[in-house]
Structure formats: structure tokens, C-alpha cells
Amino acid sequence: MASSPFLSKSPISFSSSVSTSLPWRPSLSSSAAFRSKPRRRSLTVQSKIREIFMPALSSTMTEGKIVSWIKSEGDVLSKGESVVVVESDKADMDVETFYDGILAAIVVGEGESAPVGAAIGILAETEAELEEAKAKAKTADSGAAKPETAAVTPSAPPAIAQPAPAATSAAPAGPRKTVATPFAKKLAKQHKVDIAAVVGTGPFGRITPADVEAAAGIQLKKSVAVEPAPAAAAPSKPAAAPALPLLPGSTVVPFTTMQAAVSKNMIESLSVPTFRVGYPVNSDAVDALYAKLKSKGVTMTALLAKAVALALAQHPVVNASCKDGKSFYYNSSINIAVAVAIDGGLITPVLQDADKVDLYLLSQKWKELVGKARSKQLQPHEYNSAYTESYVGTFTLSNLGMFGVDRFDAILPPGQGAIMAVGASKPTVVADADGFFSVKSKMLVNVTADHRIVYGADLAAFLKTFAKIVENPESLTL
User: Fold this and answer.
1) pLDDT band, very low/low/confident/very high, at 90 (cuts 50, 70, 90)
2) 315 given a catalytic annotation
3) I need a surface site. Which of 23, 61, 104, 390 has the fewest CB within 10 A?
4) What does pTM read for this prediction?
């Protein structure tokens, strides 16, 4: 057949199959041309059912919560159209679809959570696939319940051996795409298990680490530990949760995704050896400059961030980072992350290249970031995250001076060299070199630093430079 190799080289759209100006038409008889049309149509008209997955909106995100579905079941979707609003560990973000189609089913409803990579919705290409897509959504719900039943069966030894052959016998039913979690693939390599022969028990047949361990026979070892205590299963539950008893009338409030992310970062910070250095700074001059420029939109946060950035430019080691505990690196940019308290958590928007940006533009950018932070609309490149390496904050500023706090210590964020805690500016009696007393405004700044890369002398020199810039703030407006 002369037409077959020609058709296999490049896809032909349905509209091109009825064209009368194709260069190869004269070489074919009318009957041959008629026979070739169904072949071309079968190559291009292919119905598809696709899953809408929970995206990873930041590097620290392991689970997402559905805030709201913008589209409803049965709605027609276009590529690039927003479908659902997802709450990550830092912000609420619209999730777009990458394909045209019809939203056949919603797997994860509003207010429910799902791990990153899990299916949250089903997209059908045409109306003909709606019923099949809805059936697929139902299997997703039943598939999510499979691990629970599997967790109960190991108590009986015969029940463990029986499901394994049944699962493997279902594998040769037909060709299928192997979908496995990264950790499951890693385990398969370690234990030399053919992952293509493993049948997954996760959503939509996804292969989980437990499936690989079962195929490798590792699950039998776990069952030995479970077998001797079938009768002790009941007392083992309270033993596994030795929490202190709650006071009468107390309520348990689970962490939000943002609070869980903050908790994770704070625990990670405990592994870093830190030290703290305090320094009093005369703030009369910067207070006067702020009063002068406030009407032009300049904020005190922008003034302090600019002063910190200029000081870091002279002391790059304080702007350095250590993430693996074996080496550190000097950051090519000075990006100041500033802590902002929002409803239900804390977030640190980043002022990028703060040493190079004009003070007025820096203030304007800061107001924009604060507005986005409080409405939970920050994009991943706008807050302190390793989602995009070039945008991660290299130094953090935390200011509680507006609340009247005179001094406090801040916890060092993971991956940064230092964080500065700024207290309130207060009148203080000071004596000059001649012994005369006067009243000057002073603010205390405390810096917490990673002692693996920053030493006491480094931090003292940095704070001395910072104090000079704040006490003579003309350079901030240049």
C-alpha cells in the first residue's frame, strides 16, 4: 500500500483529509482515496480521558487543600482556563487546565485535601466519554479505600499470601502505562523488582512503596511484627499516642496547611547551630527621613530593608547560605525576605535585589506584596521559597517595633545565613564624650546567624556598617 507509509510520517487533521489540493492525490485512484479517508480519520479522532492532578505549588508543599472549584461538573473547559483554587502551604492559587475538554467529575471536593500528584478531577475530551470518565472517578474513590483494607488483612497470615498472586495475575490483562511514585521506583531498583509487573493499589492503579515491598516479599517481615499481637491491637492504640490529657472543655484544632509548613520549617531550624548578637542603633536620623518621605509613599520597612541590603553588599558572608551542612555559597543577589503576619499564619514576601532597587520603587513593591500576602494571592516567586532558586530570600527581616516591642530574638529560617529582629525606637538617655547627657532615640536590633558560615566578628562588622547607614541615611535615597 503506497498510502500507509505516507500517513505514518506525519499526523493529518480531519480537515486535511477532505482537501482536493493534496500533492499525492493524482497518483491514487478514487477508490484508493476513498479507502484512505477512514484511516486518516482514525489516526486523528481519538477520545481521551485525563486526570487533573494536585499540583506542587511550592517546594515545601506535600499536600493541597481545595478552596473552591471555579468550574462545575459538565462545564466545557478551554486550555489555560482556571478550574480550581488550591490552598498551598503559603497561598491560595488558581490552577489552570492544560487541555480542552469537559469537566466530567470532581474527585476531591471543596474543603478536602489531597497529596501532591493525586487526581482531583477527571477531564473528558467529548461528551461520549462522560460516562466512562465518571466511572473512572468512582474507581478513584474506591481505590483510595484499598490501602485501608490492606492494612487490616496482615493480621491473618494466609490473607497476605493470597492477594499477591491475585494482583499479579491481573497484570497481564492488557498493555498499560506504569505509574509509580518516585519512592516506589527507587525501592524497585533497590530490591530488583520489575515495576512493570507490579499492580498498584493507589488511586487509578498508581504503584505505591507498599506495593513494591509486597512484591519483594518485604511485607512478610512486617506481618511477623504484627502477628504476635492480634489480641494486643486494642491496647496498642492508646500506647501509640501518649499525649497529655486535655483539660475539660478543650478543643483540638488541626494545623492549616500554612501552619503545618511553618511548623516543619521551625523544626528544621533546630538542627542549625546559631548564635545571636545585639546592637543599639541611633534612629533619630532615619525617623526624620521617614517623616519627610512618608507622604511620598515610602515605608519604614522599605527603609530598613534598603539599609540591610546596602550593609550586606559590604559583608557578603552574612548573605551566604548553607543547605547541605558540607559547603556554603555566596548568593549572587541580595533578596530581603520580610516577615508578615497574616490570618492563620506567617509568610515572608521577598524584596528582590533590594540593594539595587530605588527606595520609592521598593516601597511601592512592598505595599503590593503585603496586599497579595494578606489576600493569599502571592505567587511562588514572590515569597521565601526554594521553588525558584533565583528568587529565594537570602536574608530575613522581622520587625515588631510597630507593636512597641523593644527587643526579641528571631528563629533562623532554613537555608539562610542570618535573620534580623528589629525592636521599637525609644527615647534613651545617653552621655557624650564630654560627659554631657542628652536624650536620643535608640532601637535594638538582634541578629540570629548560622555559626557554620558566619562568625562573631563577621556579624559585629555587619551590624556596625548597618548602624552607620541608619544613622546617616542619605545613601538610602540615592
Assistant:
1) low
2) no
3) 23
4) 0.56
